[in-house]
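Re-run requested by the PI after the first attempt was lost when the workstation crashed. Everything re-entered from the original request form. Ligand of interest: MU-OXO-diiron.
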Amino acid sequence: MNTELYSAYLYLNMSAAANSLGFKGAANWFNIQYQEEMIHFQKFYDYINSQGEQAVIGQMAAPASKFKSLMQLFEETLKHELFITKCINELTELAMVEKDHATRVYLQWFITEQIEEEENDRDIIGKLKLIGDNGYGLLMLDNELGTRVFTLPANPAV
Ligand code: FEO
């Protein structure tokens, strides 16, 4: 739960960093990523409370805020999402060991979500590699990132 909240704050910092670099479209993309992470956080929070436990938000480190390029922003995003996938997998394995089938089933949503998260980042990094230092290409990609809109995930409360 804390890690999802940390993810939200990281992407909010990245949104501001993208804006500082002049990429308004990427700033929009990261802001929407922030909103998605808040949904992920809320899902864990609600689930813990629904299981007769009390969700407690703990201390967390300040997320990174200095990024020098669009490529660095998305490489760090992919790196972070691979870490999140590892965390979700470890939670799932723990649920299996503890025969906590309700939690194992609940975590399935996150496993599927991570496939999409990683794929999105790899697609953008692939485009950035093709573009290189071409200003027009960067502008086109930034315009594309600016079209991203927030949509509530399917069955957000499940
Ligand atoms: Fe909540 Fe980006 O994984």
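Saved to the shared folder this time. The helical segments are 2-20, 24-50, 70-97, 101-131, 135-145.
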